[in-house]
Amino acid sequence: SMPSEMLMKIFSYLDAVSLLCVGCVNKHFYHLANDNGIWLRIYSSCFRPKRTIWKMKSEQTETVSLDCAALHDRKPGYWKKEYIFKQIAAVKTRVMRLVKPVDPYTGLPCKNKEAIKASGLSWIIVLKDKNGKEHIMEKANLSFKDTSVTILWYSTNWPCLDILSTLKLFGVTPLLPDQSRDPSKNGPRRRSLIAEYHLANLTESSVALGADKLVQLFSLNPGLLVGLWKEKNEIAFIMVSLHYHQLLERSTLGSATVQYALPPDKPVLDDVDPEYGLHDYSLHLDMHGGSCTYLCGTFKSLFCRKGDIANGYLRLTVVSLKDNTKHLPLIGTLGLSWETDAFKGNVKDCYVMDVTLVDETGKPFWCFSAPVYMELSSKASSLYDYMGHIYTTDYADSEGKVCVELVWLEETKEYFIVNLVLYISTRKVNTWYGTNY
């Protein structure tokens, strides 16, 4: 019942975010909150239009007057749209400036953490039950590594696992990022769908990674880890590991219902010859368990010959079983750390593996971040220098495979990587170079 003039006066004191929120109350508020007069004042206070008048000895800058034509000749909501578009463009400019410098070892932007903060990017998961009801989990802990970010959600009110059907992972960005304060979950935001996982029959359809006294871990590609309480078989926490390669694009450029479609790779002009094989590749490998880093290193000058191509894969040997000068010790005992409000733990013999394979031009060729586990091998060590149990870690996706062989030395209580081989899909190579392996 309040007159529109009084509402307009009240709205004129609101900032842009509050004005967008109040416009969601009802149709009447929406039309009033679209007023060009209010939005023009907000626009002009943030993006002051200026013109330059040149004189013989000095330069004078004055503000262009904003006459009635700027208001009455525009459709309602025009200046709101202009303000939003300019704010988004300003944020994109800041982010692009940050991601421009590239690390020569990884081929990835050097300032990913700063770019994520500048964009206001965060992540949420939406759990959907079999009745169609959605449960949104906002609060998350972030852990940044050289080439990935690990996101951990935990709560005391997870819905029952038996009634859940899907989990959706979204990147969330504020429509109007404010650099001076943390983005509010009640403000206007955009969602970008990153991945969707099916949780029905989770324990049967996923890979069991390991367990400790309290929880057991299950993995779903790509990069999702679900921790279940052992006694109740209910969710304890959910962890996702995201590689920096195309992270910003996937987290910001998709819609709420459709994932961002990556542009097809353009063939790289090179002297690649199927008779010669790949050459001068680099691998950046990071093995970590949340807060602990077990190995972080770069391996250069990787190559394969014609004889290394078989069964649809090209083999790149990073660490050879026969060359003990390149065998690598790991720092600490491998395990994946987790925590909730009341408990914390560490599941042994599993960890997160970040792989960044860079081609000879310095471009990221194959990248992933995923939880993996070690499995005790039945064969005994044949190496004279390492007498101990052998463990293997294997990872595979549509683009390649990773095979790691480790030896546990009981005397020094440490693992040694004695064999590390990458297998790259010939389909991936043919698409990348336009060749025919």
TrEMBL record:
CDD domains (UniProt xref): F-box_FBXO15
Protein name per its UniProtKB record: FBX15 protein
Domain of life: Eukaryota
InterPro entries in the record: F-box-like_dom_sf, F-box_dom
PROSITE patterns in the cross-refs: FBOX
Record gene name: Fbxo15
UniProt source species: Stercorarius parasiticus (Parasitic jaeger)
Lineage summary: Eukaryota, Metazoa, Chordata, Craniata, Vertebrata
GO CC terms in record: SCF ubiquitin ligase complex
Domain F-box: 1-42
Pfam families noted in UniProt: F-box-like
